[in-house]
């Protein structure tokens, strides 16, 4: 082959091959298969090689042969009910797959990522975190399908009454039985299988742990009278005897009676002050809403109500009587044969239950007069 032939034929041929090659490489670099055999092949090979399904997020740095584009969180949440937690500290923007694992509630995507606002089916607001002038609520217009969720677990006495919260929310999540979604502080649920309740060792008669001391509170007035007639072991910040986390439960269970005195008296406002001693094998002496109201939540023979007595002295006399009569005392634990206490998990359970509600109830709904309903 002469050099002339090379210049005339081979050179253009090599040049053309080079150009076509560039196109092919460019095409393969930028073409993202969407459907069809290539995509199937890629998915298949991927699932065979690392056992993940296509929706599993892969470790970017370790997977160099990652031929499938990452599935974005937006895709993942596509078929789910999205609840955006607007006003609770999350510390993380990442997806929380808690509803299914912790509460058996399927189809919910709980997020704190405010970029998902326009796609969120529900936006969740913790009352205590709402600014008085509502300045920290979303600024963007509310999508027509979106529901705003008002969540509060404090009693009306201890919740700021914010002007401007009427006609804003579509559902309430609260301990109150008339809430759209009721989440109490605790529930009495069946024990299965039955277990034998064993009374913990007791070396104290009456105990009380309290941090928030307000002389105007009914509970403080009652305590002052009661302690004249019976020995009460007191703990907590109010008495300069702080109880650490690890001592909290053992302290309560070492007492025969515990003063489950609520900070304020409101219908359905029954807190962990009742459920802690109930679950720890201590008889609660309650001060709060009426006995009848307590009995909506807890067996009537599981607790003692201060209203059952004409005076703190009479209550003290009765507690002394129970102290000397083990049979009478043990009658307060009869319910334990078939039931136990279930606690509820602050805010995650509330968010998941709100999501569950939204999935089941598509109808239009507005909470008009939240202020009147909650504060009366
Ligand atoms: C991803 O892979 C890198 C390198 O193999 C490893 O150091 C890292 O811990 C992995 N990260 C996760 C989240 O698995
Ligand atoms: C999306 O949800 C609907 C109803 O909840 C279900 O029938 C459907 O199979 C789901 N689709 C996907 C892709 O998961
Ligand atoms: C939501 O959509 C509105 C337009 O309807 C837009 O102005 C706003 O920036 C969007 N917000 C977010 C967080 O994407
Ligand atoms: C939710 O409440 C707002 C404010 O009252 C109302 O404008 C909106 O239409 C309601 N949305 C739904 C889906 O019920």
UniProtKB/TrEMBL annotation:
Keyword annotations of the record: Disulfide bond, Glycoprotein, Glycosyltransferase, Golgi apparatus, Lipid metabolism, Membrane, Signal-anchor, Transferase, Transmembrane, Transmembrane helix
GO molecular function, one term: 4-galactosyl-N-acetylglucosaminide 3-alpha-L-fucosyltransferase activity
TM helices/strands, residue ranges: 12-31
Bilayer topology: Single-pass type II membrane protein
Domain Fucosyltransferase C-terminal, first and last residues per copy: 200-373
Catalytic activity: alpha-D-galactosyl-(1->3)-beta-D-galactosyl-(1->4)-N-acetyl-beta-D-glucosaminyl-(1->3)-beta-D-galactosyl-(1->4)-beta-D-glucosyl-(1<->1')-ceramide + GDP-beta-L-fucose = a neolactoside IV(3)-alpha-Gal,III(3)-alpha-Fuc-nLc4Cer + GDP + H(+); beta-D-Gal-(1->4)-beta-D-GlcNAc-(1->3)-beta-D-Gal-(1->4)-D-Glc + GDP-beta-L-fucose = beta-D-Gal-(1->4)-[alpha-L-Fuc-(1->3)]-beta-D-GlcNAc-(1->3)-beta-D-Gal-(1->4)-D-Glc + GDP + H(+); an N-acetyl-alpha-neuraminyl-(2->3)-beta-D-galactosyl-(1->4)-N-acetyl-beta-D-glucosaminyl derivative + GDP-beta-L-fucose = an alpha-Neu5Ac-(2->3)-beta-D-Gal-(1->4)-[alpha-L-Fuc-(1->3)]-beta-D-GlcNAc derivative + GDP + H(+); an alpha-Neu5Ac-(2->3)-beta-D-Gal-(1->4)-beta-D-GlcNAc-(1->3)-beta-D-Gal-(1->4)-beta-D-GlcNAc derivative + GDP-beta-L-fucose = an alpha-Neu5Ac-(2->3)-beta-D-Gal-(1->4)-beta-D-GlcNAc-(1->3)-beta-D-Gal-(1->4)-[alpha-L-Fuc-(1->3)]-beta-D-GlcNAc derivative + GDP + H(+)
Pathway assigned in UniProt: Glycolipid biosynthesis; Protein modification; protein glycosylation
Fucosyltransferase N-terminal domain residues: 78-186
GO process annotations (BP): lipid metabolic process
Pfam families referenced in this protein's UniProt entry, alphabetically: Glyco_tran_10_N (PF17039), Glyco_transf_10 (PF00852)
Enzyme class: transferase
Entry EC number(s): 2.4.1.-
GO CC term, one of those recorded: Golgi cisterna membrane
Organism: Cyprinodon variegatus
Record bears the keyword Aminoacyl-tRNA synthetase: no
Protein name: Fucosyltransferase
Main localization category: Golgi
Family indicated by similarity: Belongs to the glycosyltransferase 10 family.
């Amino acid at each position: 082959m002469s050099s002339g032939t090379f210049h005339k034929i081979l050179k253009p041929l090599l040049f053309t091959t080079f150009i076509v090659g560039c196109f092919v490489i460019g095409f393969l670099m930028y073409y993202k298969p969407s459907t069809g055999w290539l995509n199937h092949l890629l998915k298949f090979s991927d699932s065979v090689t690392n056992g993940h399904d296509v929706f599993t997020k892969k470790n970017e740095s370790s997977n160099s042969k990652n031929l499938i584009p990452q599935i974005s969180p937006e895709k993942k949440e596509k078929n789910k009910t999205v609840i955006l937690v607007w006003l609770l500290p999350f510390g993380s923007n990442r997806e929380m797959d808690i509803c299914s694992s912790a509460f058996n509630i399927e189809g919910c995507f709980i997020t704190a990522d405010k970029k998902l606002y326009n796609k969120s089916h529900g936006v969740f607001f913790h009352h205590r975190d709402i600014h008085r002038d509502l300045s920290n609520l979303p600024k963007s217009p509310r999508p027509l399908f979106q529901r705003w969720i008002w969540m509060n677990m404090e009693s009306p006495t201890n919740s700021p009454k914010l002007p401007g919260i009427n006609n804003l929310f579509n559902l309430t999540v609260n301990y109150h039985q008339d809430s759209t979604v009721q989440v109490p502080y605790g529930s009495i649920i069946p024990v299965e299988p039955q277990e034998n309740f064993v009374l913990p060792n007791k070396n104290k008669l009456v105990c009380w742990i309290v941090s928030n001391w307000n002389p105007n509170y009914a509970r403080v007035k009652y305590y002052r009278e009661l302690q004249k007639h019976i020995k009460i072991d007191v703990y907590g910040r109010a008495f300069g005897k702080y109880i650490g986390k690890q001592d909290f439960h053992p302290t309560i269970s070492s007492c025969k009676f515990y003063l489950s005195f609520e900070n304020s008296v409101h219908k359905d406002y029954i807190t962990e002050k009742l459920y802690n001693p109930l679950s720890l094998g201590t008889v609660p002496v309650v001060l709060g809403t009426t006995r009848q109201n307590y009995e909506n939540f807890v067996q009537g023979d599981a607790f003692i109500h201060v209203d059952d007595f004409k005076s703190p002295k009479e209550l003290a006399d009765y507690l002394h009587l129970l102290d000397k009569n083990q049979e009478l005392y043990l009658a307060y634990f009869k319910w334990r044969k078939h039931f136990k206490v279930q606690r509820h998990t602050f805010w995650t359970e509330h968010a998941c239950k709100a999501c569950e509600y939204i999935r089941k109830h598509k109808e239009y709904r507005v909470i008009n007069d939240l202020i009147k309903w909650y504060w009366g």
